[in-house]
């Protein structure tokens, strides 16, 4: 059975003549398979249908090289004529070859797509790990910042407590021997009361602590436990340090009032123990600005 030429076979399979000639020329006339590979690889090129420049050998009048195709044979010029069945059989083989090449190309593209997908997933995993590390670093820095703030707050509280203790010690040293009676030891009879007759009788001696709740002018309240023998000045100092103003800022001392019965504590009362003022074991005091004069 006679064979079709490579150019005819490509044309029979539906490729344009110009594209088929170009494929055979650029593959060095190495056969139909090489030409088909080139056609399938370059079918999407924008210049695939542009003709090639005239071979140099044709311009100079020399015979074409093996890489340059010769002129196409004319009909009846030494070419065997194929029967219809032979042409169909050869076309079938060529189509099968085309289908095989197409399958190979699809498989190659599928492998390349899978490889790109693997790379994309790997890059996504690396990005996720980087984000997770960044979040962990941020959480660690936030935790360290909270610990630092807590330590600073505890240190500030400690400084306030130390200031209260120093102020109480200074007041006790300054007024302990001259103003107000000294706390008497436990006895059946209470000590002398140098205040007005309206004050309440002293509380029972078995209480050694006093829980004081102080209501501030802005509606908030402070609660603190003091020793029953501490002076009322310690309560006033505690309020001055915690009423929301800067300690030691030159504010006037606050005025302390009892809720019921209504009573305003005098400066002399500031030097008296809480137990002698009837504030043991617990009491509610009201804060007001001290009136001038």
Automatic annotation (TrEMBL):
Pfam families assigned to the protein according to its UniProt record, in alphabetical order: UBA_7, UBX
UniProt keyword annotation of Membrane present: no
Presence of the UniProt keyword Cytoplasm in the record: yes
The entry's keywords: Coiled coil, Cytoplasm
Positions with biased composition (Pro residues): 182-195
Compositional bias (Basic and acidic residues): 82-118, 133-173
InterPro entries from the UniProt entry: UBA (IPR015940), UBA-like_sf (IPR009060), UBA_UBXN1 (IPR041923), Ubiquitin-like_domsf (IPR029071), UBX_dom (IPR001012)
A GO BP annotation: negative regulation of proteasomal ubiquitin-dependent protein catabolic process
Main location: cytoplasm
GO cellular component, one term: nucleus
Subcellular compartments: Cytoplasm
Molecular function in Gene Ontology: K48-linked polyubiquitin modification-dependent protein binding
Region (Disordered) location: 44-210
PANTHER family membership: UBX DOMAIN-CONTAINING PROTEIN 1 (PTHR46340)
Protein name as annotated: UBX domain-containing protein 1 isoform X3
């Amino acid at each position: 059975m006679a064979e079709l030429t490579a150019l005819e076979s490509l044309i029979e399979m539906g490729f344009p003549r110009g594209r088929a000639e170009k494929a055979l020329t650029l593959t060095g006339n190495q056969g139909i398979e090489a030409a088909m590979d080139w056609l399938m690889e370059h079918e999407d090129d924008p210049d695939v249908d542009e003709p090639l420049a005239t071979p140099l050998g044709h311009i100079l009048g020399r015979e074409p090289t093996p890489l340059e195709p010769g002129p196409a044979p004319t009909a009846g010029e030494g070419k065997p004529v194929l029967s219809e069945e032979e042409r169909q059989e050869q076309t079938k083989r060529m189509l099968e070859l085309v289908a095989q090449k197409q399958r190979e190309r699809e498989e190659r593209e599928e492998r390349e797509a899978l490889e790109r997908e693997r790379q994309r997933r790997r890059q996504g995993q690396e990005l996720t790990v980087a984000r997770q590390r960044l979040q962990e670093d941020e959480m660690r820095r936030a935790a360290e910042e909270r610990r630092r703030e807590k330590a600073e707050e505890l240190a500030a509280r400690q400084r306030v407590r130390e200031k209260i203790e120093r102020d109480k010690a200074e007041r006790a040293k300054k007024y302990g021997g001259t103003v107000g009676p000294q706390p008497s030891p436990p006895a059946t009879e209470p000590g002398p009361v140098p205040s007005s007759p309206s004050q309440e009788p002293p509380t029972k001696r078995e209480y050694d602590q006093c829980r004081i709740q102080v209501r501030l002018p802005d509606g908030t309240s402070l609660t603190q436990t003091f020793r029953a023998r501490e002076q009322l000045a310690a309560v006033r100092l505690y309020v001055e340090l915690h009423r929301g103003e800067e300690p030691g800022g030159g504010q006037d001392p606050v005025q302390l009032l009892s809720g019921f019965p209504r009573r305003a504590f005098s400066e002399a009362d500031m030097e008296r123990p809480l137990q002698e003022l009837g504030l043991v074991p617990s009491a509610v005091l009201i804060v007001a600005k001290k009136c001038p004069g």
